[in-house]
Specification:
This protein has helices at 2-11, 49-52, 61-73, 85-97, 111-127, 148-152, 181-192, 217-229, 282-286, 307-320, 323-343, 375-385, 407-423; strands spanning 28-32, 35-38, 43-46, 102-108, 135-139, 171-173, 197-202, 206-207, 213-214, 233-237, 261-264, 276-281, 349-355, 358-363, 388-389, 396-399. It is α/β, with parallel strands linked by helices. It binds 4'-deoxy-4'-aminopyridoxal-5'-phosphate.
């Protein structure tokens, strides 16, 4: 273990981690269900689904088997000019649960690229019709990924500061907090009246990285319907919310108006392999449906539609669409709501938010309520010592478990949170 830790320190640059001052990363040797097994014999409860990707528990045997079988048949093939059954089957599977207006699937390999593809398709949609529209609208607090396009449409701050000269300009409307809806709609209409808005991109109902901030489907419906009436392409970034997190397969199912383009990733493979998907409506497809090279969408990654990732996604889809999975999602939803109610009125708690399997507890703090809040490190260390993985967003503790978590395990997490709040 010591040798490995030393080699890790020497050779590896970890994501979102300072090169000095951070604790040594925990060495994980295996994982089962909701538990990560460490090299020194501990079992850590993964209450955040390993950065929101895991749905059916770690090392789920059905998904593992599907990947193994696929690996023995076809590990990968170039996806331009060639195709394969796992991708064809996955496109069928996804289109069967996506909103009815979604008609075509474009593959990539992570959430940021799914968003990049969505933006590029939206921009080329106008280009192909010789219409000059360049502006993009997003919500304040948005996070859409770490590549340049996805950073450009995300809120500017600590993460994006070094790159600000290289990001394209985006107009941000206020986050539609409760009671601010009318104001946000007014700002939105004002921007659209300038007639040059190509696209509106949003995380439907939940801004995850901003601290699991939840907003009303009513306001979002109004924004989408106004945008579409004024020829603005609407992009739903469901990278986080997709695959059951909000209680339904997709957050857009809580809406009346459906987006033109959707970006998916994270839970799509049940948390086994990287995969990104961008789906489009027939309106969008119409601007590309020509033989000319100039109208072709020139974008593709080496591992586009990797068959192993598609096989994992198909196996995860089988599990997700069984009634057992929906009943697990409903159970977590109920338990979260009960626990949230028990925290209401607690003077250490600024706000408790829940939607489906997402629970967020924003703690009262004298410091600015942002990612850099000193409570973040304190909370992380406190829970890790108790063998629970919670990775707060500043002063916001959130619980986002794999759907296979048991009642006892969830109660154990809740009790630990109560214990922590009691120390404040
Ligand atoms: N969009 C949203 C809403 C996300 O939460 C994330 C990742 N946290 C991304 C895009 C980027 O996904 P990835 O990390 O796979 O690039």
């Amino acid at each position: 273990m010591d040798d490995l830790s030393e080699l890790d320190r020497k050779n590896i640059w970890h994501p979102f981690t300072a090169l000095q001052g951070a604790n040594d990363p925990v060495l994980i040797t295996s994982a089962r269900g909701v538990y990560l097994h460490t090299s020194d014999g501990r079992k850590i409860l993964d209450a955040i689904s390993s950065w929101w990707v895991n749905l059916h528990g770690h090392a789920n045997p059905q998904i593992a088997k599907a990947i193994g079988e696929q690996a023995a048949e076809l590990e990968h093939v170039i996806f331009a000019g060639f195709t394969h059954k796992p991708a064809i089957k996955l496109s069928e599977n996804l289109l069967s649960i996506l909103p009815d207006n979604q008609k075509k699937i474009f593959f990539s390999d992570n959430g940021s690229t799914a968003v990049e593809v969505a933006l590029k398709i939206a921009f080329q949609y106008w280009h192909n019709q010789n219409i000059k529209k360049q502006a993009v609208i997003a919500l304040k607090g948005a996070y859409h990924g770490d590549t340049f396009g996805s950073m450009s449409v995300g809120d500017r701050g600590l993460f994006t500061k070094p790159f600000s000269p290289y990001l394209f300009q985006t107009s941000f409307v206020d986050f539609p907090e409760r009671g601010r809806g009318e104001d946000v709609i007014r700002q939105f209409k004002e921007l659209i009246s300038q007639n040059n808005v190509a696209a509106f991109i949003f995380e439907p109902l939940v801004q995850a990285a901003a601290g699991m901030r939840i907003y009303s489907p009513g306001v979002l419906d109004e924004l989408i319907s106004y945008a579409q009436e004024h020829q603005v392409v609407c992009i739903a970034d469901e990278v986080f919310t997709g695959f059951g997190r909000t209680g339904k397969y997709f957050a857009c199912e809580h809406l009346v108006h459906q987006p033109d383009i959707m970006a998916l990733s994270k839970g799509i493979t049940g948390g086994f392999l990287p995969l990104g998907v961008t789906s489009c409506s027939s309106k969008i497809i119409g601007a590309f449906d020509f033989p000319q090279l100039e109208k072709t969408f020139f974008h593709g990654h080496s591992y586009t539609a990797n068959p192993l990732a598609c096989a994992a996604a198909n196996a995860s889809f089988e599990l997700l669409t069984q009634p057992l999975c929906q009943s697990r999602i409903d159970r977590i939803t109920r338990l979260h709501a009960d626990f949230a109610a028990s925290l209401n009125g607690n003077e250490k708690v600024l706000q408790v938010r829940t939607l489906g399997t997402i629970l967020a507890i924003e703690l009262v703090t004298p410091e600015e309520t942002a990612y850099g809040n000193p409570l973040r490190q304190k909370i992380y260390t406190y829970f890790l010592k108790k063998n629970i993985l919670l990775r707060p967003l500043g002063n916001v503790i959130y619980v986002l478990p794999p759907y296979v978590i048991s009642d006892e395990e969830l109660h154990h997490v809740y009790e630990a949170i109560e214990g922590f709040v009691g120390t404040l």
